[in-house]
């Protein structure tokens, strides 16, 4: 699912990926860890953050 959202956002005109590697960013310090994210980590799942900015 995370790959799908990256593909969708990358294909949308007017948005720029803020990742230096054009994929995911480390969790921003300003974003709290969610219960859903805690559960994912506990179950051994990956958690990915996308960060885009509107450019138009």
UniProtKB/TrEMBL annotation:
Record carries keyword Nucleotidyltransferase = no
- What's the short name of a Pfam family annotated to this entry? Methyltransf_4
The protein's Enzyme Commission number: 2.1.1.33
Sorted alphabetically, the keyword list is:
Methyltransferase, S-adenosyl-L-methionine, Transferase, tRNA processing
**Known catalytic reactions:** guanosine(46) in tRNA + S-adenosyl-L-methionine = N(7)-methylguanosine(46) in tRNA + S-adenosyl-L-homocysteine
The record's section on InterPro entries has: SAM-dependent_MTases_sf, tRNA_(Gua-N-7)_MeTrfase_Trmb
PROSITE patterns documented for this protein: SAM_MT_TRMB
Q: Which GO terms describe its molecular function?
A: tRNA (guanine(46)-N7)-methyltransferase activity
Renumbered to this chain, the signal peptide range is: none
Name of the top EC class for this enzyme: transferase
Summary of the function given for this chain in its UniProt record? Catalyzes the formation of N(7)-methylguanine at position 46 (m7G46) in tRNA.
- This chain belongs to the protein called tRNA (guanine(46)-N(7))-methyltransferase
Q: Quick one: which gene encodes this? A: trmB_1
């Amino acid at each position: 699912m995370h790959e799908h959202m990256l593909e969708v956002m990358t294909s949308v005109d007017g948005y720029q990926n803020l990742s230096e590697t054009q994929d995911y960013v480390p969790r921003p310090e300003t974003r709290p860890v969610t219960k859903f994210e805690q559960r994912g980590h506990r179950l051994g799942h990956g958690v990915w953050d996308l960060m885009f900015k509107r450019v138009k």
